[in-house]
Amino acid sequence: MSTLHSLTSNDIPATWRLLPVGKILLDSQYGTNEPAVENGNTRVVGMKDIQDGRVLTDDLSCSNLSKDECSSYLLSRGDLLLNRTNSYDLVGKVGIFDSDEEVAFASYLVRLKVDRTKVNPRFLNYWLNGNIAQTLIKKIATKAVSQANVNPTEFKKHCLVPVPPLAEQSAIIRVLSTWDKAIENCERLILAKEARYTWLSGKLLFGEHKDESSLKTRWYVVPNHWKIVKIGNVAKEVKVTNGAGDELPVLSCTKYDGLVDSLSYFGKQVFSLDTSAYKVVSRGEFAYATNHIEEGSIGYQDFYEKGLVSPMYTVFKTSTAIDDGYLFKVLKTETYRHIFQVNTSASVDRRGSLRWNEFAKLPIPLPPIEEQKKISATLDVTRQEILLLKQQADALRRQKRGLMQKLMTGVWTVKPMKELGNG
Prior knowledge:
single chain; alpha+beta; Adenine-n6-DNA-methyltransferase TaqI, Chain A, domain 2; Helix Hairpins; four-stranded antiparallel β-sheet; 26 strands
């Protein structure tokens, strides 16, 4: 274990100390084992509630805890939570509790009570979420079949922390907090833009200016100058398999992103080595996961000349009567996810799939073709704004990671506020 850590005291300024995390903690503690129950008397932080270095409290489960248990497990502002058991990719997540709410924490988490005479909890939280500490935690973790576990004793002994004087810690926190605020502002803008996109989609994709003469289906109403047709009237199934075994990129369908390159998206191969039975999906064709369409797993192939999808997918292409961009946006709405769910549940196929012969019977709103194109183009502008904001947020996160690496190992130094004032 002594060779786990690549950081040594020679890598940090002479005024800093390199300490095992156990030396800067007052206590560490497992959370409650009480099961989650509806209307329990205490809200409980679980694994899912640790995200991006923060402990989120807006969607907590509840448990019934006694008075003594509440006293033992309630969190205090500045407590850190370490996710000791999870998948290997997620184990070791750390978040800081920055609230005065009365909430406890679950057994798969370990509370780290920081000795504030040595380290600022926010400084330690930044460090434990950085690349050096996270890499080490992954090395300490022991793997099981589907989970990994971090032994708190090994963590406290072998996870080293560079500890500058408290004034320097505060200066580093001040700089990194600026990036946190910029990222949070960006995320708020993204949420607002996505909410507007959802509202605008519902308004445009199903038409405005409705009255008594509007056309109605079980699920929506459209203007009377539109048509409502079956999907099979404007599209047909495509059945082409990769019988020759061509080396084409394999695609997967996701709920939110549509079709994605499988290797890039998952970071590993999750498809068969033999792709001769896979279906070919060419540029300008649609594909959906036949057995998971109720989740909204449908995509449009517009980034490769040809790709492959699982034999369990359905592929189809449209006629000139409908704009692909418009149709894709309609099919990705929550309205159509619900339609897919209802029709999958009602399917005669016992496996709950929605095969083409049933999918083709579903109704689709059909405005005049030029109106379809205008609607799609308008929504594309809003979607592009969201994409740019997400790219900006990703760039800020990369900048922050680079800053953390430099500042928290002393490669770059920041003057405390007193020194800045004297300067």
